[in-house]
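Standup notes
- DV: blocked on the single-chain target, sequence here:
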Amino acid sequence: MAHRAMTAAEIDTQLDTLNAGSDTPWSVVAGKLHKEYQFRDFVQAFGFMTQAALIAERSNHHPEWFNVYRTVRVELMTHDVAGISARDFALAGAMDGIAAQLAA
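- DV (later): unblocked, structure below
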């Protein structure tokens, strides 16, 4: 399946859907989807990253991320289309699902 960079209007629509009901919404920062997750502690943050890494590897779509103690900062973009694509929103949704399971 060919991937393409989404238009600004498409990104806005997808952000509205992705962020519905979220206390910590995704945003666009420097042309990338951006979110910071806060977890109970380092172990929970690392568990989130481990689960997200398995999904990212299966989809061959890897995040830019940074972890300090209980915080995980994530930035997503599709490098081969030089922008945000549907692949980024799919991974963002999967990450939100993982975070919700860990918070439960």
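- Follow-up: Helices lie at 8-19, 42-59, 86-103.
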